[in-house]
Design brief:
The protein is of the alpha/beta class. Helix content is 17%, strand content 29%.
Length: 344
């Protein structure tokens, strides 16, 4: 795809400084810019790259004043916020790359399913009975949409996503490759011989609007009722959300974290990678959990930063860790003191 500098400046409401006939066919980092690409400069520490870049177009802040000569092959677009404008441009570029409405074959739509306008359905994708699909939904190849599933407008299911029966997915959601929504929760009851009987999982998963879920993340359906992913939640790759969990609005969880059954996480929380959260507890709004921390009990104080396993307030953890690192020295000192005492 080719874009002129005037088209880009029009999208961003920017001012052109340089060649108004310049054209670009791709995007690049400023330190790796090549002819025909567009880049941006927002962080001053990368300014030196602007004076040697081969990029054809660079987005800069209107307040930016160059201290050296800019290559004649480089055209500037001056905007109010270079970083925000480049992000906007990335989103526009991404929309062009997404599939356009079409029903590829072979694919399957049950006769009882209701499908909105402008659907893209990739080859080998499946939509089950009673499913309700909104407008402008994109379902990529080999995705599975089970019976009774509801999917809101503008949602994207990338290749290999599996949505079990009766799950609900809101508007403007993105589910990346390999996501599983609605698989059985880990429910087994042992008898006196420690033989396990499966506890049927008959609930569902409800994902609200504007949620993004990374590749190969799994969300278990509830035993009874629903597992809830509230609006604006962002989940990274390889996360496990167990049955009957609730993740509050605008909470973000990094890769490889796990949340055990029936735990309720508040809104605006941030949870680092490989964190483990026990079941049947509550995590207060705004809680921040450092990577690899373990949370065995409820967190009641809003906005607290926890670190370690078991997780404790981060400043306490740092002090404790400092003491732990000094432990060999302390033990040696104790031995020396014991030897002195024993000699007397």
């Amino acid at each position: 795809m080719e874009f002129s500098v005037e088209q880009i400046a029009g999208i961003l409401s920017g001012d052109i400084q340089g060649n108004k006939d310049a054209k670009v066919t791709g995007l690049s980092k400023i330190e790796e810019g090549q002819s025909g690409t567009l880049s941006f400069l927002a962080n001053p520490k990368y300014e030196e790259h602007l004076y040697i870049t081969k990029a054809s177009v660079v987005i800069v802040n209107k307040s930016f004043v160059p201290t050296k000569e800019i290559p004649s092959t480089c055209t500037l677009i001056k905007v109010e916020d270079a970083y925000a404008c480049f992000a906007q441009l990335l989103e526009t570029y991404n929309q062009f790359r997404l599939k356009q409405p079409a029903i590829e074959q072979p694919s399957f739509i049950d006769v009882s399913a209701k499908v909105g306008s402008d659907l893209y359905l990739g080859a080998f994708a499946y939509i089950g009975s009673g499913a309700k699909i909104g407008n402008n939904v994109k379902i990529y190849p080999q995705a599975y949409v089970g019976d009774g599933v509801t999917i809101g407008d503008n949602t994207i299911l990338f290749p290999g996503v599996k949505i079990y029966a009766d799950s609900v997915i809101g508007k403007n959601c993105i589910l990346h490759a390999g996501v599983v929504v609605g698989s059985d929760g880990f429910g087994f009851a042992p008898d006196e011989n420690n033989v396990y009987s499966k506890v049927p999982q008959i609930g569902n998963v409800i994902i609200e609007d504007n949620v993004e879920i990374g590749s190969n993340t799994t969300l278990d359906k509830a035993t009874l009722g629903s597992t809830f992913i509230r609006k604006g939640v962002k989940l990274d790759n390889l996360i496990h959300i167990a049955h009957n969990v609730e993740i509050g609005e605008n909470t973000a969880i990094a890769a490889q974290a796990g949340v055990a059954g029936s735990t309720k996480i508040g809104k605006n929380a941030m949870i680092g990678g490989q964190a483990g959260i026990s079941g049947h507890i509550k995590i207060a709004d705004g809680t921040k959990i450092v990577a690899q921390s373990g949370i065995p009990g409820s967190v009641k104080k809003e906005g607290e930063i926890l670190m370690g396993s078991p997780g404790i307030p981060m400043e306490d953890f740092k002090k404790s860790y400092y003491g732990f690192r000094k432990l060999p020295y302390i033990l040696n000192k104790l031995r020396e003191l014991e030897e002195k005492i024993n000699k007397h």
